[in-house]
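Hey,
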Amino acid sequence: MSAEQNKALVRRFFEAQEDVNSRKANLEALDEILAPDFVSHAKLLPGQQPGREGYKRAIAEVLATGSNTRYLIEDQVAEEDKVVSRLIVHAIHDRRELMGVAPSGREVAYKGVAIRRISEGKIAEEWALGTAGPKLMRQRLEQEIEQERIERERIEQELRVARRIQQASLPEEVPELQGWEISPHYRPAREVGGDFYDFHLLSEGRVGLVVGDATGKGVPAALVMATTCGMLQLAAQALDSSSPGEVLERVNETLLARIPANMFVTCFYAILDPKSASLKYANAGHDLPYLLRTSGEAEELRARGMPLGLMPGMGYEEKQTILEVGEAALFYSDGLVEAHDAKGEMFGFPRLGALVAEHGKERSLGDFLLEELYSFTGEGWEQEDDITLLTLRRSAARS
């Protein structure tokens, strides 16, 4: 065959592929162009077999990823049994993923240079080099970066929603009681958890105080937290009893059927009678509060009880104490004791208990503990969990 005939054969090879893509012909047309023992030294796709059938399958897979595929031959040189083609491939990537790159619907263009050896009127061998591989790798990287950006935006949106849910569930005002000081401190982490606190105004001037933590992070934890806050408020108002254990029992049974099986809520609930200085309390698996006595001793407020929403038919032990003038109770969440410093050491319960015992009475207990926490964790600390502190101090003698 002459050089011009060889070049015409290569052009027919490209035209056959354009026909295949437009469904005017099928891959059988390539059987007339490629030799039975055809070998490709370049791979169109990873894992491609070098023989004719593997090459045809690779062409079919590539063409199936897009539409309107066109081959523009910019230059051709033929010498002896070889034809060198410099070309640009145009296509619209709008059907399937190609080498990890999702279809974009946009037109793409790849440059290439290919050498084909002709034997007995058919293409017997091929070597090729092009820009398709590097371009696809770059596109795949760009798509991965874009997907990461979209995922970050989704997470940030969820965090904003979780914060709004959480903030809407927290009380706007703190009860003012003669002879008592109630001081809440709330520091949300970036990845919002399920911390909450609330106040229930009961009959005869009594006040319910609650601090709790729903398991998990983000929107699910915020929703469970908001649900629990509402249930506690409703149970306290409906029962209007002096029994915190009864309130927790009611909420446990109701919550059990309304939250996912893998979630639960820890909660400490106390009812203060300001007139008698009596604090009656029950605990649903929450971290033990501390009571700072006038003697300087930090006493744990212990009461047995399982977390809310975990098991049906739970009972909650009730205990009672009296707060003398100058004494203070500290309710808190695990975000305080489970904070870590740069070396991985945990703030911990022993440290907290010692600080409560050593705390000077002229300072706010909550502010003091937060200062100690920031000193412990050091600069650059990324808060791991929500931190909730609620202090109750008897500031004057009963009238």
